[in-house]
Write a structure and sequence with these properties.
single chain; 317 residues; alpha/beta; TIM Barrel; 5-stranded parallel sheet; 3-stranded parallel sheet; 14 helices
Length: 317
């Protein structure tokens, strides 16, 4: 059962503060309105059409970054959209930990709206340190509810994001204090891969997803002559630094347990079907770069099994 543990959807312009979006990405100011819609309007139905017969279920992460990226979604609205397709989607809520009643809202989202976790939290998007004591009630609530927290703990690229909060190692203190809390570090901590791997080796409760990596590595370039929906694709296709290196670095470590990497896409930034094909044929790339082969059963577990250690999904096979 292939589960995409990290994807997004968005309705443009409803889910955005356009002024903040343009402030964060000034290069978009000259983009025609119709092109902006093509870049940022990605309903769930688009994902379903692109992944039919390939992905069994996907976990939708909620955007709650109004002051930085200008992406802002209501937990209730995301739940309503996702619950139209209960066999195909689950979802994670997103609450700023400093908001009044954050832990209570977290509980409401899980118990009443069916959220399976909190994510994608973004310290550099939402301006908090993950080891700030004001976050602790949310961690305690996650343990009580038996759901994970998914965190973009590394740096973020947007102009108005705050890199001062993007310290992956802040989570060391959290993992020490809350060994029962399941923590997933998004994008294997991009670009702090080595820091993230150390945390995964040090703490049994720290995992990482590999969402967004094909985009960063230039593996998901739009087809020639296409409209080029994917955002932020580099000019050079070189899959070593942001795809092969973090995977091989983790899996070749003394504590590189293969069951702590979760498959995710970060749709719409990545083509899910193309990514699955890349993973299933990853040793075509490792041979090109004279790297050790990744065992096929490890790749199979990343795609089909490892999510079970973190998420509890209904109708899981």
């Amino acid at each position: 059962m292939i589960v995409d543990t990290h994807m997004h959807h968005s309705m443009f312009p409803d889910d955005f503060r356009i002024d903040r979006l343009l402030d964060c990405f000034p290069e978009l100011a000259s983009v025609p309105a119709e092109d902006l819609k093509n870049r940022f309007h990605h309903p769930l139905e688009t994902y379903l059409a692109e992944t039919q017969g390939v992905v069994d279920k996907a976990i939708v992460h909620t955007y709650n970054f109004p002051e930085s990226l200008g992406f802002c979604q209501s937990n209730d609205e995301v739940a309503e959209r996702v619950n139209q397709y209960p066999d195909k989607f689950a979802w994670c809520c997103n609450i700023n930990p400093f908001a009044k009643g954050a832990a209570r809202e977290f509980e409401r989202c899980v118990r009443d709206l069916g959220a399976v976790g909190m994510g994608e939290w973004g310290p550099s998007y939402q301006f908090f340190h993950t080891n700030d004591k004001r976050c602790f009630p949310v961690y305690e609530k996650a343990i009580e509810l038996d759901v994970p927290i998914i965190i973009h703990a590394g740096p973020a690229k947007g102009r108005t994001c705050r890199l001062a909060y993007a310290n992956v190692w802040d989570l060391d203190e959290v993992a020490i204090m809350y060994p029962q809390l399941r923590i997933v570090i998004c994008h294997i901590g991009f670009p702090k891969y080595e820091d993230t791997v150390l945390l995964m080796q040090k703490h049994a409760n720290v995992f990482a997803d590999i969402a967004w990596l094909p985009n960063l590595a230039g593996l998901d370039m739009p087809e020639k002559g296409s409209s080029g929906r994917r955002r932020g694709v580099p000019a050079v296709r070189y899959p070593y630094y942001h795809f092969l290196y973090p995977l091989v670095y983790y899996l070749s470590g003394a504590s590189g347990l293969p069951d702590k990497l979760l498959f995710g896409t970060d749709f719409s930034s990545v083509d899910p079907v193309k990514y699955i094909n890349t993973l299933e044929n990853i040793n075509d790339l490792t041979r090109q770069f004279n790297l050790p082969e990744i065992p096929p059963d490890t790749v199979h577990a990343i795609l089909h099994e490892n999510w079970r250690k973190v998420f509890k999904l209904q109708q899981a096979i």
